[in-house]
């Protein structure tokens, strides 16, 4: 998984004047010269970047821990989170396992398989729309909206995906004991520009800085080849909730 780690807190110095301070490297203390506080230490907290697999059925998050990619455990203690968002009759929002659990009793307000609609026009999803229990509506631009009678609102798919991303990142934050605002998100290799842009927008709506959108088979081959040094061709089989993808990859080191 293409994730990057920086030290959690790295001191940088910002120039507020002309006098350069002397820095004791052993203690990292800044010694100000005569004439006062012209240089001040600026502490830049460098955060972890997480890798997010935003799946049709389930999602997962990974982060680099001790130089190795590690799957984050969510608040429920699971390594994957159902990509499901629901609104109860009382107007409460549920995300993940808790939303999935109540799907049968609240089908018209439980949004699953939303990845099938992200970045797509209503006229492209005739087949997919028959496979969900909630109502889809077409907005003025022909885009797909998800109708939520419980709260009388219509959501764009990226707004629902944003709720899933928000939970994933909140849980990752707790697990890593660090603020998380930067992410790399994977998408199927067949996703077009509109679907990629909408996935990035979902990240933005969730308050994330989406550093990169990468293809799922690329992420899989990166994870596989993480410590390997040989050139080789591999086939990635991804039996997913939305599609079954097979990709051929040539690995060069
Ligand atoms: N190799 C497998 N054998 C049997 N069941 C599988 C296998 N891989 C996945 N599944 C099942 O298929 C379902 C969907 O898989 P998964 O959560 O990986 O899809 P997804 O990542 O959400 O979908 P997509 O990748 O299409 O967006 C899960 O219920 C999972 O248990
Ligand atoms: Mg998948």
From TrEMBL:
UniProt key word ATP-binding: yes
Superkingdom of the source species: Eukaryota
Classification via InterPro entries: ATPase_NBD (IPR043129), Heat_shock_70_CS (IPR018181), Hsp_70_fam (IPR013126)
Record keywords: ATP-binding, Nucleotide-binding
Molecular function terms from GO: ATP binding; ATP-dependent protein folding chaperone
Name this polypeptide is given: Stromal 70 kDa heat shock-related protein, chloroplastic
Organism: Triticum urartu (Red wild einkorn)
Taxon lineage: Eukaryota, Viridiplantae, Streptophyta, Embryophyta, Tracheophyta
